[in-house]
Structure formats: structure tokens, C-alpha cells
Amino acid sequence: MKKQFLILITTLISGILLGWIFFHATPAKVETHDHAAEAAKETIWTCAMHPQIRMHEPGKCPICAMELIPIGQSGPTTDPGAIHMTKEAAQLANVLTSVATKQSPVKEIRLYGKIQADERLLQSQVSYLPGRIEKLYVNFTGESVRKGQALALIYSPDLVTAQQELLETATTKESQPALYEASKEKLRLWKLTDAQVASIETSGKVKTEFEVFANTTGVISSRRINNGDYVSQGSVLFEVSDLSHIWIMFDAYESDLPYLSRGMKVSFNVQAIPGTDYTGNITFIDPVLDAVTRVARVRVEIGNQGGKLKPEMFATGTIKANLSEWKDKIVIPRTAVLWTGKRSVVYVKQQGSSEPVFKIREIELGTMLGNSYVVISGLSEGEEVVTQGAFSVDASAQLEGKPSMMNNDLSATDGATKSDPVKSEQKASQSTRKQLSIKVAGNCEMCKERIEKIAKTIDGISSAEWNITTKLLAINFDGNKTNSDKIQQAIAYAGHDTERFKASDEAYKKLPECCLYRK
Questions:
Q1: 88-105+326-420: which CATH topology?
Q2: Model's pTM, two decimal places?
């Protein structure tokens, strides 16, 4: 019993001791976690080509297998306004650059027109005798004639009387020479030759019919008489066109006129004679524009000895104008320029980086040279500009909230956390840049060039492109300066029907034959 009591006491003391150890020891420090700070440090990774991808750790894009990049970081560049792209992203986006160089700009101007007869070589074959047409030796339009060829046979009572006067005065020419000479002169005024007059006097017989001879070589372009018609003195019998020398009349839009001058060389070809090139010089530029088509006529003169070129044939000409006022200016490809209303921007590659780093820059453009532009200011010689894939670079800039063609706030820094989505949306809503597609009637390349040039002459339009297949005209314009109705009215005024306005019959009929789209 005593032994059991000792065991109980020992157990009780051990329990008290253990309890004291557990409940009176120094409490351990509890680690605290700042979850807010961890959340702030968490990085979201995305794909430069597929911004919809959002990952919590680095890796490869599940769509294109590109290396993911962190949102809000632009790579190794220190410029907060520049956009960094990996080499893989630049290759997939097909981003190409070229070096800006100084050149002597040459503007290529395309002109469309028709062949016409030389107006100075058009002649009217008239009758110098009053009388009746007894016979026509040339009786259809288009027949070729040569100078001195007999065209018609005419009976003239007045000429019969004049011959009788000659024969009567010939008997008294010794005593009355003045009357004799007057009767001869009367016949000469009716275009009888001295040989014909002498023949009448020698034969002593009066001729009742006389031939009308061609006074020029050419082609009968119009016949005004028939057999049996009575004509008076001075009546037009035929109109003759000499086609050995012809005109090519081109239409030049008012935007091209400052670059054209007399004496400039024009190369052209004719649709009816493919593979043959012709050249000529500008001899005349119409000083007044057509109020409907907004074009001026430009004349080129060439010889046509073989007669292959015929009036009303369509011709396409090309002029290369040397722009001395833009000499030694920087020239960049047209594809490098992004239009944002009044602003023209390009992306310039930053030097000193092993990877593609681009920064947007606003430039001032001069004249357009076909597929390139003259740069007045904003670029230096030797800088690399993005000439292909500029929209992809701009999309990356917009994704990262950096300055882009739609956001010209140069105070923007890298990182999406510093951009305010509400302010960005307000800025976008305040933008006046608009896009529009309207249906415009037309047929051919001449229609395309005419429609696009007319659209671009309207204040506020930055670009215009007409699709021959769909007949849709895609336009970028400033909504503060113009609107859809004004654009369509201007195009309809030039002869092309639009969705809302129909061209007048007068304007439509002035279009070239290949452009007539109405059935």
C-alpha cells in the first residue's frame, strides 16, 4: 500500500513538472505573411503575338511557342517610350527595316487619255462653184484621198455663163484687154487653173461640168453631200483629216499639274498595240480645268507615218518628273508611314541594342513618289525605320500602354499599371479619325485612279482605296473636316454613282468609253 502511494506521488509530480515545462516556456515567434505585397510582386506573363495569353510564370506561348514576356516590362531598353520585341516576335510579325537615305526624288505620274487627230491638219473641202452634184468619186467616210484627187463632178450654170463671157471677150481682147482679163480672173476665183482657162479659150467650147479636186491628203472624216444635191458657193462637201501627225490628249488631275511642264518627255503605250512603247514631249497644257471632271488636258504630239495609231484609241502615259526642290531629301517607302489624321508617324529602330527595339516618331512628309515619300523633317540619314510590319509593332506598343499611332501622349511610361484605362478610353472617344466604306460605281484602272484621286483632294481625307472587284471605297478621314455625304457628292460630281448620290448625265458622258458602267 505504501509502495502504491509512492508511485502515485511520483506520477503526480512528473505530470506537474511536464505541465510547467509546456505552459511556461517562451512562446515561439509566429511568422506573418504580407499577402498584399506578394500579390503586388506577382508578374503576369503574356505573348507578344497573342496578348490574350495570361500566365503566372514564364514559359512558352501555347499557341506559337514564343517565349512569354512580362506585362509592364519592355525588355533591356531603358527608354520608357520604346517598345522591345524579341527576335522571335519580330520574325513572326515579319518586321523588316530599311535605312533612311538621301536621294534625288523622281515622281512618277501616270496619265490616261485618247489619240486624236491634229486639229491644225483638219480641212474642209468646199465647193467654189454653185451648182448641182452630178457624180461623187468619193462616197463613204473613212476613204483615203490624196491632194489633187478628183472628189466630185459638179454642174454649174454660173460657170457656163462665165465661160461664155470669156469666149466673147477673147474676140475683142485687142481692143478691150481689161474686159478680157476680168473674165479670166473670174474663172480663176472659182479655182479653175490657168491650164483649164486656156483649154476653154483654145477649144472655143463651153464645158457644162467641172471636177472638184482635193486640196489636201488625208482621210474623209465626214461626208456632207449626196448625188443630186444642190450646193452654193462655199458649201462644205467633205471634211478631211490628215493623220500623218496626231495628238495624244491626256487627262491630268489638278494634284499632278504642279509637276508637269511643257517639253517634258512622256512615255506611253496603246492598249490596241501591246508591246510597243512610244515617246513624245508635252507641247501644251490646258490653262483651265474642267469644272466637272477636275482635270486639265495635256497634249503630246508625234508622227504617225505608218498610220497604226488611230483616233479614239486609249493610251496610258508615264512621266518621270525630277523634283529639284526636294533634292537631297530623305526618302522612305510608303509602307513605313502610319497615318493618324493629321499626324504621320514611323517606328525607328534604336541603335546599340542586340534585340529589336523601336520607338515611335512623328515626321513631316513632302510629296508622294509612287511607292515612297519625301521626308521634310523628323528623320536623319542613316536611321533605320520599320518598312514592313509597322502595324504589328504599333499593336505591341498599344498593348504595353506606350506611345502609339492612336496614343500620342509622350509622357506615357512602360507598364500597364501606369496607364489609366478610363483616360485611354476617353482619349479614344475624343479622336476624330474615322473609317468609312462606300460603294462607288466604276469599271477599270482608270476609274480606280480617278475615284481615289478625287477622294484624296477632299480636305480631311488621309487615305482612299477603291477595290475594282467589290466596288467599295475604303476611306480614312477626319470627322471634323468632312463627312460621308460630302465625300459621296464630290465623287458623284465627277461622274461616278455612289450609294446616296447619282452622277449627272453630263458628268457621266464625259467619262472615257471604258469607264462607262451604266448598262
A1: 2.40.420
A2: 0.56
